[in-house]
Amino acid sequence: PPSKHGRRLKLYYASQVAINPPTFVVFVNDMTLVHFSYQRYLENQLRKAIDEGQLEVFYQPKLCLSTGKLVGAEALIRWRHPVFGEIPPDRFIPLAEESGLICDMTVQMMRKVADLLVCRIELLPKGFHVAFNISATHCKDNALLHECTRFLSRFPTGSVQLVLELTERQLFMDDDHVLTLFKRLNELGVKLAIDDFGTGNSTHAYLQSFHIDFLKIDRSFVNLIGKESVSSHIIENLIDLANRLNQVIVA
Ligand code: MN
């Protein structure tokens, strides 16, 4: 029969689940319960996804506006789970960044992309841009620099242009290590882009601290072109800024 204590526990955990939904509580009986976090579960699943090759690369083409020709592509990670199907990036990328798994994921993706492109490089325009989204976690040591060196060494010189896109989800600190890292990447010929430009607070800090080659105007602004006067003014300002700083715009 349910003890008084057991009922109170059940009530307590039910309230916790209500407050904090990503937590599962399974009652085995009145006094025994299994309590595990959805976050931890997803993290384990993500680790497995990396090891078992469930992560796929999707390519978003980049076209030159004046010629209409293909000039590059952004490589994007997609997760096809064997049971849950396709998991949207906004469900697992923040988790991958928090847990640090993003570094292994990015390395795996860069190697997959190199494998795919290396035998097709003659089909692509010279200096084909290959862009990857980079997390601040990946800039804590020199692993990213080594991976970029490895990536570029697989192609004839000048045949690909490696671009790293800095997102504003995690702040890139302009400490000595990051500044040295970006300088060495720059010497290696790697270009830097600010992703989702116009949405974050750190944009100005990035522009001041780092050598930025591309500004990627956020989709939220691009979608509003021709629809709303305030947004079109903002876009005009962003374009003006990019021109003054001699940066290429990606929309
Ligand atoms: Mn991006």
Written overview of the protein:
With 251 residues, this protein is α/β, with parallel strands linked by helices. It contains nine helices and ten strands. It has helices spanning 4-19, 38-51, 89-99, 101-118, 143-153, 176-188, 203-209, 219-222, 229-244; strands spanning 23-27, 33-37, 55-63, 70-81, 85-87, 128-134, 160-166, 191-197, 214-217, 248-250. Strands 3, 4, 5, 6, 7, 8, 9 and 10 form an eight-stranded mixed sheet that branches. Strand 8, helix 7 and strand 9 (214-217) form a beta-alpha-beta unit. Helix 2 (38-51) crosses helix 3 (89-99). The model has no long low-confidence stretch (mean pLDDT 86). The structure holds manganese (II) ion (MN). The site of manganese (II) ion (MN) has 4 residues, from loops.
